[in-house]
# Entry
Amino acid sequence: MTHLPEPVRVVQLPDGTYAYTDHLPAPQAAPQQIVQHIHQAPPDRTVQRIALGSGVGAGAVAAGVYFGPLLVGVLTAIAANIAILAFLVVVLAWGVVTVVKSVGGTDGQTASKSISRARRR
# Structure
């Protein structure tokens, strides 16, 4: 049992030229069919590629990849909280005005009129 490679042979090709057997092209196999299941579009890495091309280090790019989506999530949560608080303020103001109008008698109606006049200005 030897560990030597097979000796190289010279063969004559159909066109009449000679070639070494180790330089012959490999027989062409049928192309393999690839089935790819796409569930979600890949993330857009354009900003990261531009950053790497402009000389920003890989650590900064990795931080952008990691903290970018986190920042978007935090800002979305803050915006949702502010919207809920604004809605609550509107509902409470409407409730106070309605109660003052109905319970306050003439003083309540005068107060609600003065508030509505102040809003117009």
About this structure: The two ends are 104 Å apart (CA to CA). The beta strands are 10-12, 18-20. The longest helix spans residues 58-103. The chain is about 60% helix and 5% strand.
